[in-house]
Amino acid sequence: MKTKLVHVALIKQPGAYLPLLMSLAALILVLGHAVVFGVVHETDEGAAAHIWQILMGLQLPLVTYFILKWLPSRPKEALQVLALEATLWLANFAAVYWLT
User: Fold this and answer.
1) CA distance 2 to 90
2) Which of 8, 24, 75, 79 is the most exposed place for a label (fewest CB within 10 A)?
3) How far from the centroid of its chain's Cα atoms is residue 34's Cα?
4) How distant is the alpha carbon of residue 55 from its chain centre?
5) Residues of the chain scoring pLDDT < 50
6) What is the pLDDT of residue 3?
7) pLDDT at site 4
8) What are the sequence ranges of the domains in the chain?
């Protein structure tokens, strides 16, 4: 009996694309808030800031799971996904820094 080994792209794994989608959603939230309300220095953080913090914070366990599961077995692809995630994180923090 032969078993066929299916090689699915790593980016299609939930541990890879969920943090990317969450980072993208957080970035859209920050940029959308800046477009709608302008760059306003608020004394109290609003709902958008709290949602952004939740989106960014919930990525940490997902990325940790991704690293533990995929980095040892498929390091090249895993590092590519992590580089994309790091780019989105930097874009998020840069947007928050310059727009608030």
Assistant:
1) 45
2) 8
3) 20
4) 8
5) none
6) 54
7) 53
8) 16-34+47-99
